[in-house]
């Protein structure tokens, strides 16, 4: 389904930038964004806080079976070997008798969750209860691979039940370096697992399947249902985000849609893309997805814990609701923008404070999306494009950012994009 509706294009692209690079209408810290777009994650454009270097939390590996279910035909041909599963831990507050608080990393590299170990909920629980905090990676993500590539045949071991069994095996057998004198396995110590989104459902499954191993779990925003046409995803943003920010975002959506979706206005599309900085993005759907990413796509990265919450959505809103122009604009830019708003029947967007808001959005999109990609790729299609079938046939481990999760979603959760 390739029909373009800008209002419903799901977020697929995020990039983090230094705070000093972003114009501000009001004080707001920049966030460290995560990015699902394969090309950018493949280049490891992932900012990390200086607190969370390997020197603070050494990376460890624990060997787990490649195949926990030799009686299941779907995993044939079976393999008997093991592979290294990454983990990190903090025993700063541990005292004998304390619990183990495990964070399931889910569909991430794992090291992206280290901030939660330093000052998030795992840190808080460990500190208050004299426990030990640990982050455990997920098979087929980060560096934890039981296979040499991600061909369809090799992906057969990427299932939720295999990953759940990994976690159980870890809890029942791990010996933490430096704490060898203690039996911290689930046989002698209480284990409590925590996860969010997919990992939230994951830890709930842990408790149901392995109640003798996991004393308790905390599921944060755990997914409960697989929905293909999930337009309601944006409803929470529309209803609960700052009204002025949403009101202008809706105006922006209408402006873009009225040109992209009207067959009689297709002559304005190249100018529209050029004006927003995406002149070489061939397909309209890719253009719309990139615009979505620079704004409302950042809402999901917010967190209830202010110590680790991403604040980029707030920064986006402060930009587009400012009545002052925050970016330098060429003199010949305004007439072109006015002609586009006139073509869309939305001339009010090119007058007064509305014009400044529109200019601020364009500046924001260029700074947070266009410029970072220009520094990495020869063409915009290489960065933003999704229509190159040859790209989706690649199956090296460097394709994990899109291939591992897409496979898992389609085979485990049955939500596939046609």
TrEMBL record:
Protein family per UniProt: Belongs to the peptidase S28 family.
Positions of transmembrane segments: none
InterPro entries (alphabetical): AB_hydrolase_fold, Peptidase_S28
Any Pfam family the entry gives: Peptidase_S28
SUPFAM superfamilies per UniProt: alpha/beta-Hydrolases (SSF53474)
Keyword set includes Ion transport: no
UniProt-recorded name of the protein: Uncharacterized protein
Key words, A-Z: Glycoprotein, Hydrolase, Protease, Signal
Superkingdom classification of source: Eukaryota
GO biological process, one term: proteolysis
A GO MF label: dipeptidyl-peptidase activity
Signal peptide span: 1-27
């Amino acid at each position: 389904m390739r029909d373009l509706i800008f209002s419903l294009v799901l977020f697929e692209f995020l990039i983090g930038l230094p705070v000093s690079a972003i114009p501000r209408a009001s004080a707001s810290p920049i966030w460290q964004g995560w990015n699902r777009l394969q090309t950018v994650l493949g280049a490891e454009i992932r900012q990390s806080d200086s607190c969370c270097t390997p020197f603070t939390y050494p990376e460890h590996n624990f060997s787990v079976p490649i195949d926990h279910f030799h009686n299941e035909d779907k995993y044939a041909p079976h393999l008997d070997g093991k592979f290294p599963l990454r983990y990190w831990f903090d025993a700063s507050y541990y005292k004998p008798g304390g619990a183990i608080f495990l964070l399931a990393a889910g569909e991430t590299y794992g090291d992206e969750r280290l901030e939660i170990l330093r000052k998030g909920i795992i840190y808080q629980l460990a500190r208050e209860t004299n426990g030990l905090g640990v982050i455990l990676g997920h098979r087929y993500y980060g560096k934890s691979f039981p296979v040499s590539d991600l061909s369809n045949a090799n992906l057969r071991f990427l299932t939720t039940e295999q990953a759940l069994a990994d976690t159980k095996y870890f809890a029942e057998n791990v010996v933490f370096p430096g704490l060898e004198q203690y039996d911290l396995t689930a046989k002698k110590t209480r284990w409590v697992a925590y996860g969010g989104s997919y990992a939230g459902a994951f830890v709930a499954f842990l408790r149901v399947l392995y109640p003798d191993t996991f004393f308790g779990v905390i599921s944060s925003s755990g997914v409960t249902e697989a929905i293909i046409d999930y337009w309601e995803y944006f409803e929470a943003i529309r209803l609960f985000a700052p009204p002025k920010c949403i009101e202008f975002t809706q105006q922006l959506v209408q402006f873009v849609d009225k040109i992209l979706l009207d067959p009689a206005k297709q002559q304005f599309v190249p100018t529209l893309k050029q004006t927003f900085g995406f002149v070489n993005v061939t397909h309209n759907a890719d253009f719309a997805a990139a615009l979505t990413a620079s704004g409302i796509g950042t809402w999901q990265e917010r967190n209830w814990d202010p110590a680790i919450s991403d604040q980029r959505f707030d920064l986006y809103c402060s930009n587009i609701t400012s009545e002052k122009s925050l970016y330098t604009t060429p003199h010949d830019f305004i007439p072109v923008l006015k002609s586009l708003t006139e073509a869309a029947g939305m001339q009010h967007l090119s007058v007064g404070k509305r014009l400044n808001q529109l200019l601020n959005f364009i500046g924001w999109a260029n700074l947070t999306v266009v410029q970072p990609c220009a520094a990495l790729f020869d063409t915009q299609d290489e960065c933003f494009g999704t229509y190159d079938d040859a790209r989706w046939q690649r199956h090296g481990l460097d394709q994990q950012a899109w291939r591992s999760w897409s496979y898992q979603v389609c085979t485990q959760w049955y939500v596939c994009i046609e």
